[in-house]
Amino acid sequence: MTRPVFLVGARGCGKTTTGNALARALGFRFTDTDRWLLETTQMTVADMVEQDGWPGFRRRESEALRQVTAPGTVVATGGGIVLAEGNRHFMRDNGQVIYLQAPAEILAGRLTAFPQEDQRPTLTGRPIADEMADVLAARDALYQQAAHHIIDANRPPEQVVEAILEALHYARAS
Ligand code: ADP
Ligand code: MG
After folding, report:
1. In a mutational test of the pocket of ligand 1, which residue from 8, 15, 17, 77 has the highest number of ligand atoms less than 8 Å from its CB?
2. Structural domains of the chain, count
3. Please, where are the H alpha helices in the chain?
4. What is the structure's pLDDT at 7?
5. Among the atoms of ligand 1, which is closest to the Cα of residue 19?
6. Residue 60's domain spans which residues?
7. What is the spatial distance between Cα 96 and Cα 7, in angstroms, rounded to a whole number?
8. pTM for this one?
9. Mind listing the pLDDT tens digit for each residue in 30-77?
10. What is the mean predicted confidence (pLDDT) over 145-149?
């Protein structure tokens, strides 16, 4: 079973960190829609937003999702990928979708502790914890709609990976 695995969730939920480890455990390739965009356009998310606005960025992101989707691939998606209904259907139809769910305070804490790892501009310029609470209020239902499996991401990365493997019914190679 080599259908792609899509990881969805807000910034800081661990899509990149967990996705890399998951790909290793499955013997899959790892790909990140944000990184793919950066490499193919030579622009950061901030550059793209500045040039084309958020709608322009969302269009590029949707295109990136389709380009990176292939068998035997773990795909870490951007936090806003689920905003487009077409992306939610695309992921559900083409692979297994995993929602890495964690409370807003936890996500904000991680992003505050390691701000340099996330180059995406804030959406509103407000404090990250407030913004994250609003983002989750708006998107949690969409992440849940898109997902085949909802995983508690508020635990160490190894445990998150283990829980995903269990959800995917993969036996762990130990
Ligand atoms: P995303 O790709 O979803 O935005 P990242 O994987 O980049 O999230 O993780 C954001 C930050 O949180 C990183 O500094 C990472 O080391 C940390 N992190 C990720 N997953 C966990 C976890 N399960 N527990 C604690 N910290 C984590
Ligand atoms: Mg990431």
Report:
1. 17
2. 1
3. 15-26, 33-41, 45-68, 85-94, 104-113, 128-146, 157-167
4. 98
5. 6
6. 5-167
7. 9
8. 0.92
9. 999 999 999 999 998 889 999 999 999 999 999 999 999 999 999 999
10. 97
